[in-house]
Design brief:
Blueprint: E1 10-15, H1 30-45, E2 49-54, H2 62-67, H3 72-96, E3 101-105, E4 114-115, H4 118-126, E5 130-134, H5 144-154, E6 159-164, E7 185-186, H6 188-193, H7 201-209, E8 214-218, H8 224-229, E9 236-238
Parallel strand pairs: 1-2, 1-6, 2-5, 3-4, 3-5, 6-8, 7-9
Antiparallel strand pairs: 8-9
The structure holds adenosine-5'-diphosphate (ADP) and uridine-5'-diphosphate.
Adenosine-5'-diphosphate (ADP) binds next to loops.
Length: 240
C-alpha cells in the first residue's frame, strides 16, 4: 500500500496533562508518555515537523490553590512548573525512541533545559527536532491551551492539534450530556458563539485571528495522530 503523504507540513500538538496520568490518580504513567511519544515519532517518520505543548493538570492546576483560598499567581507558577516536569518526561520517552527532541521553557531554568525564544524554536524545528514548549506562556492566568495557540502562531504551524480526553467537539460536554452530538467540522466563531468548552476562549480566538485550524481528537487512540495527518481518522476540524 503506498504511504499517503501528510496533509500538514508543520503542526503544534497540545497534549493533555491529565491524560498523562493514565489510570493513576496523579502524576505520570510512563507507558502513556511512551505511547504519545510513539505517535509523535510516527509523525516525524512521515516528515511532519512537530512542536508540542503539554499540560500540567495531572500534577497541579493554579485554580486549585485559588479555590482553597490561596494565592492564584503562586498556584499558576506551580502549574507552570508541572508542565516542565511533564515536558521532561515526554522528552525522555522521545529520546528512548531515537527521536531528536528539545525542551524550551518559558521560565528560565538553564541547568535543566533551554529557555524559549521564537528564533531558537524555529531553528530547532528547521533542523528536524521535536520542540517541546514547557512552562506554558510563562504568565499566570493563562492555560496551556493558550500557550499552544501562541506557540502555533509563533512557529507558523499549519494546524493546532488538541489531543484530549474526547474524540472531537460536541454540541455539549459529552462527559455530562449523553445526548451530545459530535461535529465533523465547525468554525472557530461557532465554537465561541455556542460556548463549546473544548478549549479556553482565548486559545480559540488566537487561533482564529491567525487562521490556524484546530483539530480535536482523542489522545488515547493509538495511531490517531498519524491517521489524521494522512487526512483520515476520527476528529473534529475547527476551521473558518
Ligand atoms: N462541547 C464540548 N465538546 C467536547 N468536549 C467538551 C465540550 N465541553 C466541555 N468538554 C470537555 O472538555 C474536556 C477537554 O478540555 P480540558 O479539560 O482542557 O482537557 P485537557 O486535559 O485535554 O486540556 C473534555 O474532556 C470534555 O469533557
Ligand atoms: O501559560 C500558562 C499555562 C499554564 N499555567 C498553569 O499551569 C496549570 C496547568 O496547565 P493546564 O491546566 O492548561 O493543563 P491541562 O489542562 O492541559 O492538563 C494551569 O492550571 C495554570 O495554573 C499558567 O499559569 N500559565
Amino acid at each position: 500500500m503506498p504511504v499517503q503523504s501528510p496533509i500538514y507540513r508543520r503542526v503544534l500538538l497540545k497534549a493533555s496533562g491529565e491524560a498523562l496520568m493514565g489510570s493513576q490518580g496523579f502524576g505520570i504513567d510512563v507507558s502513556v508518555a511512551d505511547r504519545i511519544a510513539a505517535d509523535i515519532a510516527e509523525a516525524r517518520s512521515m516528515g511532519v515537523e512537530v512542536g508540542v505543548v503539554i499540560g500540567g493538570g495531572n500534577i497541579f492546576r493554579g485554580v486549585a490553590v485559588a479555590s482553597a483560598g490561596g494565592d492564584r499567581v503562586t498556584g499558576d507558577h506551580m502549574g507552570m512548573l508541572a508542565t516542565i516536569i511533564n515536558s521532561l518526561a515526554l522528552r525522555t520517552s522521545l529520546t528512548k525512541l531515537g527521536v531528536d527532541a528539545v525542551v524550551l521553557s518559558a521560565i528560565a531554568m538553564p541547568e535543566i533545559c533551554e529557555s524559549f525564544s521564537q528564533l531558537k524554536a524555529q531553528s530547532h524545528m528547521d533542523a528536524g527536532k521535536v520542540v517541546i514548549f514547557a512552562g506554558g506562556t510563562g504568565n499566570p492566568f493563562f492555560t496551556t491551551d493558550s500557550a499552544a495557540a501562541l506557540r502555533a502562531a509563533e512557529i507558523g504551524a499549519d494546524a493546532l492539534f488538541k489531543g484530549t480526553q474526547v474524540d472531537g467537539v460536541y454540541s455539549a460536554d459529552p462527559k455530562k450530556d449523553p445526548k451530545a452530538t459530535r461535529y465533523e467540522r465547525i468554525t472557530h466563531a461557532e465554537v465561541l458563539q455556542h460556548d463549546l468548552a473544548i478549549m479556553d476562549t482565548a486559545a480559540i480566538a488566537l487561533a482564529r485571528e491567525n487562521n490556524i485550524p484546530i483539530i480535536v481528537y482523542s489522545i488515547h487512540e493509538q495511531g490517531g495522530f498519524g491517521e489524521i495527518l494522512r487526512g483520515a481518522g476520527r476528529c473534529t476540524v475547527v476551521s473558518d
